[in-house]
């Protein structure tokens, strides 16, 4: 009797576990081991993708031209930016996006808005640092900025040691980021570094920007993931991610989706507390890697000057 009760309890436990995390269920991906073996061996897979990603129609301007004159890059900064955030982009160009201590290249990824695209085309022509996606620039489409950024980078002949995917509301200490990358991520690693969350629950309130229904995500918890505002990796991992995002069902929460992809494709995610999830006073930012909360361009210009004059 005890053995029977124990067996039934174990089966119930297994059933409940399958509903906790998508990692215990193939609802989001199928045949991953075979696809992963293909990717590792050939850099691609002949399996039919889950997501219909039309890469030839994804860009309003050819992104190749941004990298034509690029030599070996130590740190490539890929900044997700809203089309209307002209001031933020200009502040980044004058601060952490244009440092002299490293061979850094900064590119901004934006979508389009009706009647506004001509303005960003002018900005792109002037600065030669903007990837314009054929995707409407809305909150729900941020996930596609990451997807197409990864695919774009994987198709270009970019010689970059490390890649930092980052939001335009952050202050980034690029030298610190590069130093940590050299210590933590080798060129042969398939790994990502950032601030990790574990066992977080989906937002089920429909008024939330991050609302996700039970139909879209029928599990209690998200798998571990790195917050999407700041993620550090290398080009080898970018190549794997660029293929992997095509084989995992998309959800609209960008950082969670990348976490699901990493879980499915066994990409190593590593926590680093230097990628702050919240804003700190400027006098505490000397040793950090990146800090959020810079929605106003002036505050970035001000704090950057304070940091550099206090050194």
From TrEMBL:
It is a single-pass type II membrane protein. Its EC number is 2.4.1.-. Pfam families: Galactosyl_T. Keywords: Glycosyltransferase, Golgi apparatus, Membrane, Signal, Signal-anchor, Transferase, Transmembrane, Transmembrane helix. Its main location: Golgi. The keyword Signal applies. Residues 1-18 form the signal peptide. InterPro entries: Glyco_trans_31 (IPR002659). One of its GO terms (biological process) is protein O-linked glycosylation. Gene3D superfamilies: 3.90.550.50. One of its GO terms (molecular function) is hexosyltransferase activity. It is an enzyme of class 2 (transferase). GO terms for cellular component: Golgi membrane. It is found in: Golgi apparatus membrane. Belongs to the glycosyltransferase 31 family. This is Hexosyltransferase.
